[in-house]
Amino acid sequence: MTDDVPWLTRPQLRAWLKLVAVIELLPSALDSQLQRDADLTHFDYMVVAMLSETEGRTLRMSALASRTNASLPRLSHVVSRLEKRGYVSRCAAPEDRRATDVRLTDAGWDAIVGAAPGHVRTARQYVIDALTDEQVGQLDAITRALLGRLDPDGRLAALTALADADGPGAAIACDGTTIRPATIDDLPTLRRATLLALNWTPGDDGGDRFADADVDRPEFAHGFAGFDPVRDRGVIADDGDGPVGAAWTVFLPASDPGYGFVAEDVPELTLALEARGRGRGIGSALLAAVLAAGREASWRGISLSVEDGNAGARHLYERAGFRVVGRNGGSDTMLMEF
Q1: How does pLDDT run across 71-95, given as a tens digit for each residue?
Q2: Longest C-alpha distance within the chain, in Å?
Q3: Nearest to 316 by CA among 54, 92, 132
Q4: Exposure winner among 182, 207, 255, 278, fewest CB in 10 A?
Q5: Where are the beta strands (DSSP E) in the chain?
């Protein structure tokens, strides 16, 4: 052996061989469970899952390939197979007839909803439950360092804890977008995001359900006007043309609760995207950022409210680990406990 190669030390070699063993064994374990219980491969699952988390359950083929780290030929083959099963459909993109959009069908939605619990149980069995909370944090740091070498452009950023930013000026690239901590100067952005969240569905006349002035009503304004970046946590997504989305939490008292109130020591979450930010994984990235911040702050959990019919948001939160703990009018109160 030549002397100019920095050969692995014995401790490094032991760690490397164990990593290689995990790389070999884990995909087979994930595939086996999904094929047995849902007749899906793990890659099938990832394709359907990425579509399920986007606005309109639709992605451009090129964007879907990037999200799943697949070549277009491989993705096309898998999409064809899923199309035959009725899980997805393909059509020309409305704004560019040369491009192809992939849309998740109702049958595909039902498939991912049915497959997700078993997949999560498998992830827990082979990885998460084998580790202590401290080791999970170490795993997060290790994989983040490895992805910095393997995926320097952040193509798979939607699948990682993106907002691990350190310090108020930090920013992390995500699909051509940066995600940064929210500051007190972002109150106008949080106000705008509150309006977007209120108008997640059109009114009976096809227009917005709430006008701009409605945001300043006390039952809505307390969700952003009292935001304190020292006590609360928030992140802003910016795509170069300005803020494209935001997610933040606020602690509210029992005397002035929000729609998703659980307890005074559990902050409530709001998340909203501009139309141009949907279908790009930004919502998932913002949510991951706030959850990471909450865990770091040793909060008991984070709560939120989801209106009936907002299936996309509900699925996003369920996949992250939120569960229904109450009811408030036409909305479910959901909680993520840390």
Answers
A1: 889 999 999 999 999 999 998 877 6
A2: 76
A3: 54
A4: 255
A5: 58-60, 88-93, 96-104, 172-174, 177-181, 233-238, 243-250, 268-273, 301-307, 323-328, 331-337
